[in-house]
Structures are given as structure tokens and as C-alpha cells.
């Protein structure tokens, strides 16, 4: 008899703990998954009765998940005890590094399709009560970051390896202290997986495990604790599967996270220093349960109502089949057989009034349908998934709809907070990988101001930097986009903002190629400004020319006037003294006119200055 590994013994303890829970952990998850799907009548003998399905559970869960993920999240890293407007060069450099980490995290988020994984982990939380991200180092990934030249090929050698995040079922994660949900406080964490035997043997061989140990890796049928009915179906051959369970044990030793991988009877990887300081696990619950790392699933509370709704629908369907259609009663002594053909004649002996009667359809008690509708309505209302939230209303009063939607979203706030905490914990795990596993210069690309930026990052240089992380949450739901667009329309119509400001703040996707449109408008505005400047310069030149011409004209007029005055003075001196005396007695306004008149008379020969 072969000895079991330590990890197998820890797995058995964790499995026993889960089975002691009330309701039992594994069977509850399987039941929840059935009711989220369409397998509502598992194990029920219908005996020919109808088995209708009203997927209220799926509708509520899908609505809640969509409402939660309607707000986009972003990891924003910074450095503790550094002001935003610091002038210190070293502190500015650390801020730049934090910005690089933030941008790169967003790039990794997109590369690993985290938006899709968020939906997946929320669905697992709604059906099992637990949400878990596991991040591991994959040494086969080519980072496409050159790090030196190969001496043989004289070609750049790329840095190999990068971290990857996956969703793990809550039942496949076991805490060393199951009464504490805090991940980093655990004495150990066990992660359970199931893989093909040959794959596990190859990994063991790469890890230089002795062949005698590798031969102990064998297939098993220990899949009863795998979530879902399909998780218990494999390609078995004579009750022997080509798969087996494997266990990843994580524990801390002097602030270092250690790892060992094994199966039930064999070791795949010996004790290994991961190089990390944090458990690479991010854990959260849908609803909290006191003194347990497992949470309460959303579906668990809906299943009893879903069963009642399905049973009521069955009873209503049976009643309608039996009594909803009228029946014909006839006298068999007078009519041998009844003919239901359209327009078919039926012969009778005697009066037909005493031969044939029509029984009217039975009337269902209105209380039955009212109760049926009420159960559905109250189930949705209590779950916060009313018709307004689900969009089953006429959108005439959008303000009222938005208010109702916000009101119905209140029960989700606690779940949202736990999801954001889950993402924050994941961000710190990513940072732990970047600082401790990016030990050489790497090229990291990220988006900044809609442009791809490339920077060099070496995490080993920042092991002592106190980075901090916050999760930025931005609403992008349908109704938020409507209200945002309406507000922008009002501001534009009131001339409070420009058209460019309007386009820059338009919700994403409303206007296709909006940035190109903004660039074209800016280009047109620049051309118009250049034309206006040219026109202004031309107008200024014309104005200057006009002023110069006016000055020249004024100067000419002044010179002419001075010349005229000189001629007049010379003429006056040529007159007789008594005439000069009489002229000087005249006011200034009359003096010039009188002199000009005398000069004109002299020019016409009517005046001799010496004789006057």
C-alpha cells in the first residue's frame, strides 16, 4: 500500500469541512448551477405531467452581474508619502514609475481579457458564494523584450515568462484556517486542479522528479467534488480515468511564498521559492457568512421560490388541460357516435334539446393566477430585479426610470464593494509579480492619451518603494450614457460649452470615429483662424496706408495754407498804410476773407496796391 502525500491529507480535511457545512457545500453548488440553467426538474418523476420552466433565477443573476460590471474599473498606482505636485526629482521619477505600472496593468488587463474573467468570477460567486483569482508564473510566455544577444545565432534573446491570472472555483481552494477569509493570514492555501496524467508526468520530468516517483502518478475517479454535473463526467474506461487530481500547496516561510505540487501519491514539484511575498490569490464572497471563508450564493435564496413558481405553473397547466375546453354530452340511445367534423351533420331521434348538451369550460379561481404573478413579482423585487431595472417598461419618463434603477441597485452595493476589493487585492498580487519576477529590464507597452507608449521596467529596483493602489470606478451603463448625453446636449444648446468640448465628453461609441471628427474640426478651425489673421493683417495694412495718405494730405494742406498766409502777408504789406490799418482792425474771421477779396481784385486788374 502506497503512502499518500501531505497535500492529499490536507485535501481530505478541506473536503470534510465543506461536507460538514449546512447546507452541504458541493451539492448546493450543483443544485444552484442546475437552477441557473434549465435543469429544474432533476430527480422528479413527472408521470406525464408538464414540466414548465420559468427561468427567473437566470434572469435575476444575469441582471445583477450586468449591473455590477457596467462600471469599468482601472488600477491606479501611486507612491505613499509623495505629494502630487512635488518638485523633488527623485520623487517625480517614482511617480513616473507608478504611472508606468498603472498603464502596464491596464494593458495586462486587456491582454488577459479581464472583463470577461470578471463576469465569470461573478457568476461563480452568484452560484457558489465564492470568487477567486489565481495568478501564476508561466515560464513559456515570450515577453518579446530583447535581453542580450545569442552568441551562436547573434540574434536578440527575449526574456521568457510572465504572470497569468485565471478564475478558480471556490470549491477547489482550501484555506488552512477556514474560519478566516483573509488570504494573507492563512497558514497555507491548497489549490486543487484536475489534469491529464501524461501532462502531469511531463511536468514532473521537467522538474527532475525520479522516475519511480513519476510512475506513481495514475488516473483516478475522484471527481465527485468538481462543480457542476458535467464536472463529474469524463472519458472513463472501466472506471479508470486518464485524469487525476493535483494539488498546489502555498505557504509562507520568512516572508517568502513557498510552493509544492503533488498528486495523491506522487510529487510533481518539490519545495520551491516562488520569489513572491504575497499569496497569489485574490478572494471574495458574494454574501458574507460569519466565521467562514465560504460565502452565501445569490441563487441559494432564489431556488425555493423558483421551485414554487415551477410547481404553480404545472398545476395551472394541468387544470387548463382538464377543464379549459368545453365538452359535448350526447344520448347514446339516440346518437350512435358524435361527429366533430366541421359542418358535419349529426342525425338524432327525437328532440335535439334532450339529446345533446355542451358543458361550458371551467373558470379558474382568479386567486391562483394572482398568487402566481405575485410570487414572480415579489421574487424579483426582493432580489432588486424589478421591471424597471430589467428594462421591461415604456421609456417615456427617463428620469423616473433612472431613479428606479438606482434604487434597485442599492442591494448590489455590498457585492460591488467586495468585487472592487477583489480587484484591488489582485492588483497588489500583480505588483508583487512585477517587483519580484521582472528582475531584468523589460519593455512594457501601455496606452496613454490614446497613444501607445513603451518604457523600460526593472522591478528589482523598486522592492523597497511603498507603492499604494486605488481602484478607479467609472460608470458606463446604458442609463448613465443617456443622462450624460442629455446633460451635454443641454450645455451645448445653452452655449455653456463648445462643440469640441461636447464631442470630447460624449460617451464612448455614440459617435463613430469621434477623435477623427475632432481633429478635422480643429484643422478647420485652425484654417479659419489663419484666414482671419490674414484678413486682420490686410485690414491693418490698409488702415496704415489710409492713415499715411491722410497725414500726407494734411501736411500738404498745412504747407499750402502756410504758403497762402505768407502770400497774404506780403500782399498786405504792399497796400497803402491806411488800408493796412483798416484791415488789421477787422476780426480774424473777416480779415482773411477781406485780404483774399483784395488779392482777387488785384489779379483781375481792378486794384492798384500803391494807389489804395
Overview of the molecule:
The strands form five sheets. Strands 4-5-6-7-8 form a five-stranded antiparallel beta sheet, with helices on both faces. Strands 3-2-9 form a three-stranded antiparallel beta sheet. 23% of the residues are buried. The longest helix is centred in the C-terminal third of the chain and has 60 residues. The protein contains 17 helices and 14 strands. Among the domains are: 36 residues, no CATH class; 39 residues. By secondary structure, it is α+β, with helices and mostly antiparallel strands. Helix 2 packs across helix 8. It is flat and about 160 Å long.
**Radius of gyration over alpha carbons?**
46 Å
Oligomeric status of the shown chains? single chain
Number of strands: 14
Strand order of the largest sheet: 4-5-6-7-8
Helix content: 40-55%
* Poorly predicted regions: 391-398
Please identify the structural class as seen in this structure. alpha+beta
Beta-strand portion reads 15-25%
Distance between the termini: 161 Å
Please summarize the sheet with the most strands. 5 strands, antiparallel
- Distinct helical segment count: 17
